[in-house]
Amino acid sequence: MRRLAAPAAVAVLLLAAWQALVVVGRVASYVLPSPLAIVGALREVGAPVLEAARASGTNALVGLVAGSLLALAAASLAARVRALDEVLTPLAAASGALPIVALAPIFATMFGATSSLPRRLVVTLVVFLPVFVNALRGLRQVDPVHAELMRSYAAGGWATVRAVRLPGALPHVFTGLRLAASTSVIAAVVAEYFGGLQDGLGSRITSAASNSAYPRAWAYVTAACALGLLFYAGAVALERVATPWRRVPVHR
Amino acid sequence: MSSSTAVPAAPMVAVRALTQRFATAAGPVTALDGVDLTIERGRFVSLIGPSGCGKSTLLRVVGDLVTPTSGEVLVGGKTAAQARRDQDYGIAFQSAGLLEWRTVARNVELPLELHGVGRRERRARALDLLELVGLGDVAGARPSQLSGGMQQRVAIARALAESPSLLLMDEPFGALDEMTRERLQDELLRVAAAAGTTVLFVTHSIPEAVYLSDRVVVMSARPGRVAAVVDVDLPRGAGTDVREAPEFFARVTDVREALRGAPVRTGASA
Asked: Does domain A57-243 have CATH number 1.10.357.140?
């Protein structure tokens, strides 16, 4: 709780300063609405915010799970088979240079504008890279003492993977997953800017903005931010459950 | 060659004309040059020498963690590779090398688990061993919760898990403070004597080598050769009585002079 107190206090201060700036400086609401105006808009919109958030959240979650599973499978293969590593790693790096979100309209043409698949595919591709890179790094790093120990036990490749490589790689995998979690929400939201099915937060933001309903646009942005935080918190919670040994007090 | 495998009379370790070269960026390096070493069963033998004399390499060759360039290595009459597959030896390094994601007990169980020992049996064995090294009460703790000395004791318990006939130890107490080190030395002697285990022990501490060993093998700087062999005949594990005895200091002096390259007068015969 104490770790949350300081950032929460800073956030409250920043919001208060924002409110003061808008009120005292008489900033027009189309330039920057005040936090209170945004909260008001959130209340006014009501249930549709939740519906749009649920649509975007589902897209992000499906893409996040699919992208992570693909990345973990690819990283496991690349860690075991050198030739695959040489093929996959440059491809993964190249995919980092792709404007993946901009592929949304192409996918919409491929799979139809009434399908949720284009946005989920975008998220899958966006998620793949951070998870793949981090998981592969974790799988490659083995403590030399552990490697010698496993050799002295005459342990086979698969036994070594299970006993040493996988658990050792978990912290790296979760670094990738934490990065991917909030990115997946951003990708799911922004992919809607480029057409396709319009039932998520992204389309609500663009339509509110084009109607000059700026507090409402900001209300949806706030919802997207909350959704991203929720995903991040989920990844952190999963990490705590999966790596209990990293939570014990360290001997000093 | 079936007549020569696993002959009870075969020495625990027999190294003949062992040479080990490594390719490095600066060209080939000869780490070991024509090393002969015989260790009878139940003996405690230390390897001592300056840094880079190849003592760790020699230990790793005996353990089949490194394949020698030339020469012969027999462990209990078998090839080193066969001995490794048969799990004839336990090993402990300077770094305890515990798996941080396993509890202390499950670390000790690791070799048993890898070799298919049942859950209940290996847990019982692990708890016995932890009791033996005085850690019965931390079986459920995580390695990161233990001090360096306690972690090293867990590593020793793990090395003993499969009742090895040979214990290979590479500076296992090197990172510990003097008090902990002396306590663990006595513990190791007690445990090894109780099980009749042969020990090959690498160290850079002269008193440690003399206190622990029946025989101290002094190696020369690169290329590593056996420079001298100092036999020690002191009561094992007698603690302060031995550590402060004149005979103890005499053997320490012998080893020190051998390290300096002076001829050793005491028996290099047995």
From this structure: no
